[in-house]
Each structure stands twice: as C-alpha cells, then as structure tokens.
C-alpha cells in the first residue's frame, strides 16, 4: 500500500515553454502533498506544501508564479513550471501524506526535467 | 527553525560488516519525529527507520537500528551485516509533530559505498 506515482518520469522541454508534472496517490487519499527539488548530489529542498482545495504554501525563495501548484483532488497534485529556463533543470520529487497518524510521507519516484 | 546536520559526506563499509552513519539536529521542540531515508541510484526515497522523540527505546528494523540521544540531539543509524544493496545515499530527516502538514527537514546526506 501507500503508493505514489509521478508522471512523466523524464521530460525535456525548450526554454520558454511550460511543463506540467503530476503526482498521484494510488491507494490512499492524500490531504497534504509536498513538492521537493533535488539538484545532483544534493539533498531534497522543499518547494511547497499543498492541501487539497487550498492554495499551496511556498517556501521562502520559491517563486510561486513560476512554480504553480494545484491540489485539486485528494489523489492528484500538479506542479507546472512556467516559462522554463535551463536553470530550472532538476529532479522534482513529490510526497503525499494521508493526514492520519503518524502522518507519514510517501514519496513518488521523481521526475527529471531538462530544459534546453 | 530546525536544522539537520550530516557530517559524513561519504562512508565505505565492507560487505557483512557494520557501519554507523551520524546525524545531529537542532530544535527547540520537545516532541518530534526523526527518520532515516535511503535513496538508491533509482532516486526513489525509501523510509528506512522512524524514531518518535518521546520514545526512549531506540527503533530497530531488521539490520537497521538507531542510537537516539535526545539530550545530545544525536540520531545515528547503524547498519549491520552490510549488503551490496545497501549502497545508496542516506538522508537523516526531522519532522515536527505539530500539525498534520508538517514538513520534513533533510540533512545533506551520506553516500554509502559497500565493497566486497
């Protein structure tokens, strides 16, 4: 149980275009989802926290107009990178929490974004 | 704000031997969760072990055990009978117990190599 999927697993886009990444909880309802960014050989950096039906809470320094997060249902959250640039190239990981004790976070497999 | 420090960027262990990964953290909270996550080359985050701060007993999961020293704010991971499949990045993480949407704060990670 507690499976989280991400789609796509790898995406290449051209500079200036937008790309959407989906995060789905497959066998539980996720009241909270988290989006992380991971640069090569570095740790995970939390970008934002989203609760179903509410606006996402962004971490300091994360551009909310550039990284649009939508948590429209209890099983789906999306991250849209708008007007992507090469510096947005990174590994994006989502996690989902069912909102019940012990509020565990279950991680998706990640999405590698390359902006050319 | 909470911080998590992993002072060992890389560690190496021979197969079947025991290795200990170090983690220290800083917090003003009295109750919280601590985790060790494994990230293999696939980059899927895998929960290794969880410790609740109010529990004095050290958590154990098969070959994995922790040494939790609350006063010293130390949380080390011991891997016994190391296997080739243990080779990965290991991240120590902290999570507050306040609220259901508590975020994880990760350390910088320790890369573990397992040699024959």
Structure report:
The complex is a heterodimer of chains A (116) and B (116). With 116 residues, chain A is mainly beta. Chain A has no helices and 11 strands. Chain A has strands at 4-7, 10-13, 19-25, 32-38, 44-51, 57-58, 67-73, 76-81, 90-97, 106-107, 111-115. In chain A, strands 2, 4, 5, 6, 9, 10 and 11 form a 7-stranded mixed β-sheet that branches. In chain A, strand 4 (32-38) and strand 5 form a beta hairpin. The mean pLDDT of chain A is 93. By secondary structure, chain B is an all-beta fold. Chain B contains no helices and 12 strands. In chain B, strands 2, 5, 6, 10, 11 and 12 form a 6-stranded mixed β-sheet that branches. Chain B is globular and about 45 Å long. The termini of chain B are far apart. The relative contact order of chain B is 0.34. The model of chain B has no long low-confidence stretch (mean pLDDT 94). Classes of the chains: A mainly beta (116), B mainly beta (116).
Q: What's the shape of chain A?
A: globular
Strand portion of chain B, in percent? over 45%
The outline of chain B comes out as globular
* Average pLDDT rating of chain B: 94
Contiguous helical run count of chain A: 0
Give a short account of the largest sheet of chain A.
7 strands, mixed
Note the total helix count of chain B: 0
Structural class of the helix and strand makeup of chain A? mainly beta
Number of beta-strand segments of chain A: 11
Most extensive interface between two protein chains, with residue counts = A-B, 22 and 21 residues
